[in-house]
UniProtKB/TrEMBL annotation:
Name of this protein: Subtilase family protein
Native source organism of the sequence: Bradyrhizobium yuanmingense
SUPFAM superfamilies for the chain: Subtilisin-like
Superkingdom classification of source: Bacteria
Gene Ontology terms: biological process: proteolysis
Amino acid sequence: MALPRIEGIDPELILKVHLSAPIQEETWRTAGFKVLAQEPGGILVLFSDDTELKAFRQRLGEYQKGVQGDAKNPAYNQLFAAIDDVRSLSASDRIGARLRADGKSSAADFDARENFTIDIELWDAPTQLDRQVRVQKIVEHVEKAGGEILSRYIGSTGLIVLRARMRGSVLRTLIELPAVACVDLPPIPDLGERDPPVVTVDDVSAPAPAVDAPLIGIVDSGSTDHPLIVPSLVDSIGVPEKLGTADVWGHGTKVAGIATFGDIRECIARGIFESPVRIISAKVVNDEGRFDDTDTIPDQMERAIRLLHQRGCRIVNIALGDAHRIPYDGGRVSPWAATLDTLARELDIVIIISAGNSSAGQRAPWGEEPEQITRTYPDYLVIPENRIVDPATAAIALTVGSLAHANGLPTDGSGGAELRAVTSLNLPTPVTRSGPGANDSIKPDLVDFGGTVLFDGMTQRIVSGDQYASAGMLTLRPDYLDGLLTSSTGTSMAAPRIAYKAALLLRAMPVASANMIRTLLALSANAPAEALQCLQKLGPDGQRACLGYGVPDIARALDSEERRVIFIADRQELATDQFALYRVPLPKEFQSTKGKRHIRVSLAFDPPVRHTRLEYLGLRLNYHLIRGMQPDAIFEYFRHRTKEEAPFEKLPGAAKCPLGPSRDLRGTSTLQRSTMTMHQNVDRYGDDYYLAVFAERRWAGEEIAHQRFAVAVELEHEAEVNIHQPLRVHLRA
């Protein structure tokens, strides 16, 4: 089993092990192995400098003797019983995803005469000296064979990367080396230059929005007289007044730019910065980005939001968080968050909050060394240290997490092998925070693009849109005399995208309640497939904690199609401890046409809240989707019964539609969205389903007799079938 010696390279053994059950790392260590990597599906990559595997063979021999004496299991049973398969890492295993996508899956696929520019990732070594020695031996091997090393990065926590140029004949030998973890084409930049594009006022036009366009209030660091935003900026206020209105700190202008225009790149491409919304700026932090020393934050927030509401704002964006970045630990909700919820309920407004960005330095969730982010992403996203921060725990306000808009690498190739992408399009931004919220409610509610970060090995820093425009979301530059555009990264850039989308809904439905706006945002949202795949190993709870209900699609929310329809009920009220029933008609074409189809339910309500209670919501709403039953029978199952009445039998299991997330998982959230997917004929359940909505009193007093809410139901069939027309005929009958 000893490996052949390759000139200049010490023999090592790298094994790929498939496990049926987890094995502690210490068990591998005592057997003579070091764990190099973990992969999905119970796969470990192990290293041993003992190519004869003496310690491992000794343990295997003991195990193969079977049960000895009074023992219940053979020696080392925990180790060997969990191993399904062991094999050496092959050359094919070392070929990366981009090369595989290019049709290269084995050494023979590389044309010996073709030139390749590749990134070579090496397995880690015990010490920094060992890492340097390992790199030098690979360098000598490549250069001796006629290749060229373009750049190299030797990290201190496991990341070792070289960028090289070589012929296919050299690459064929390289992937045979045990020290090589992966060989792949360098990541291709997928958006933007290192610096923001140069745009002048002469290049674009910026017409004023309509006089009745929806108003978004931006509670932040103030505003500037930026020429592209001035046409949309209706008013600027300071709370307190002594703060003034000027955006000296520079954050508010960036947020307002995205809230005003949505996608800045699209505006550049069209050559026109035309906004469908109007903006009012409320400055609540001083010129150093700190809150006022004399006012409490709840009082300051209440005054600012009431002033915005008096001026006509029904959407308020707050991309500010506690600078201490103390993650929510499951206790009581803060007075700040409770104030926002109370105002959202009282004023019937949509408040949008950023989930918060990860801490840096010693408190960074990926580890103290910046390089560790390349190794621990995305696992650290859901650890307690990376939970949402105040005021993102607010229950009625919409909390927004962030997705990467690209891998963030600049197209000019600057940075070499030392500049590493952490993620790619549609994956969670590496600095976004995760839920759950109070009482395990679903938080964040939604996600949208907020940019990404890169690891710069040259400077040993994590860099963002502040350093590389390609890594951030393009927006308006506060010091506009030095350039109109800049970029930035974080949930502060994702939240105003949701505010912009909420405003588009309000423009189309000007009398809609805040609950209906929230309902439709969630109804139209979907989590990107790439993000779900990336977070798969974290399970459904981890996916939900990072993505919430996903990214809203306003076109889906506003328009029905032949194969997709939406029913809505706005400004509904339900007596406490009672339930309401809504008929959901299913046309025959939806029930019986072959193909995948779904029923999706979305509900939003705004209960009283109290931050002094662990049970934060004074009321809860929830729902069942019932099939195969008539209304009278459903009422009989769910109606309140007196003590003298005999208990009624439980609702048949088949009658409850299997919606996901389940009733228990969504039950503590004020915004609930769940889906049932079907593949087979369901006409046996009849033409009408019924949505039963329940109001459950918690601590709310008798003075609160009703709870208002909005609800929407979507039917969609993947086949080209017209369900819209038969529903119109059915409902008019």
